[in-house]
Amino acid sequence: MTLALVTMSHTPLLEFIDPAPEVKAEVDAAFETARDFVKAFDPTLVVSFAPDHYNGFFYDLMPPFCIGYKALGVGDYNTTEGPLNVPTQISEELADWVAEHDLDIAISRRMEVDHGATQPLEILFGRIDTVPTIPIFVNGVAKPFVKMSRVRKLGEAIGFFLAGLEDERVLLLGSGGLSHDPPVPQWATATEPQRALLLNGRHPTVAARDARQRRVIDAARDFAAGTATIQDINPEWDRALIATLASGDLAPVDTMVPERMAQDAGNSAHEVRTWVAAFAALGAAGRYQVESTYYRPIREYIAGFGVMTAHGR
User: What phi and psi, each to the nearest 5 degrees, are found at residue 87?
Assistant: First the structure.
């Protein structure tokens, strides 16, 4: 068994709004570096840690973590709609392993995933079903949030399981973040129509999905122009987290408190839990080496945008 890792910010705005040409060229180059890294590693299995944006998971039942035995892309923001290539038997064995190691885990035999999970697969492989992929949902949007130490322990447990897979080359994906505060409704302040969506907004009409996506696109244009009211990107916070993850010592993430994370880096900064889980899984198998790091705050994407690659030593 060998392990490698790619963590990356995702953005639903990637195909809708372009930053300045030189910035877009940087992002494209970072993606190309990650693709070359993955091609050289040639994974036989992908384990994808990703959040959701009220497209597959809702407040009618919101687990902190969920392992998919089967999964479907919902096709939001022009991403691929349809099934992922999920190795169900390995997913089942993984869920059993995690449960036996004192971590509560939900499972889904029909997980629905959005751009948070499918966009990295499309960027790295061109399709969402190219390589067998175990999707692991990590809640990064809906209160209450479990402690960051719990996220780290989940990643470690998964890493120990993967270390026991013989003849597999496993790519760990962490998708989300970094600091950003897109216009996602919060239950406490949501209107009744917004609460209806947060509670169970599955399978919206084409018109409803287009309207929802248009609001985000308009917010991004306003944010880039400096006229939006959403919270600003926090590059200092982003770079500090990247440095912690690169160091191999993840103990500092245990001190990260959800309320302070939102205050410092925006309500959707909780998506960095996917990065923490992925790096914890990589570290559970031994020391690791970061191969490449890209970071830039990009207002057109409403995100501190980062891409990292790493492999076990």
Answer: -80, 90
Q: Strand locations in the chain, DSSP E?
A: 2-8, 45-50, 65-68, 71-74, 81-83, 106-108, 111-113, 133-138, 169-175, 288-298, 303-312
Indicate the CATH number for domain 2-312: 3.40.830.10
Contacts of 58 (CB under 8 A, 6+ apart): 198, 199, 200, 201, 202
What global pTM score does this model have? Answer: 0.95
Mind telling me the catalytic residues? Answer: 115, 180
pLDDT of residue 138: 98
Cβ count within 10 A of residue 242: 22
Angle of helix 115-125 versus helix 21-41 axis, rounded to 10: 70
Cα 310 from Cα 172, distance rounded (Å): 10
Token look-up 């919270």 returns 231
Write out the DSSP string of 205-264: -HHHHHHHHHHHHHHHHHHHHT---SPPP-HHHHHHHHHHHHHS--GGGGG--HHHHHHH
Give the strand pairing for 303-312 and 288-298: antiparallel
pLDDT by residue (tens digit) across 176-213?
Answer: 989 999 888 899 999 999 999 999 999 999 998 988 88
Tens-digit pLDDT profile for residues 35-80: 999 999 999 999 999 999 999 999 999 999 999 999 999 999 999 9
Q: How confident is the model at residue 15 (pLDDT cuts 50, 70, 90)?
A: confident
Mean pLDDT of the chain: 95
What does the buried/exposed string (b/e) look like for 132-141 if buried means 16 or more CB atoms within 10 Å of the residue's CB?
Answer: bbbbbbbbbb
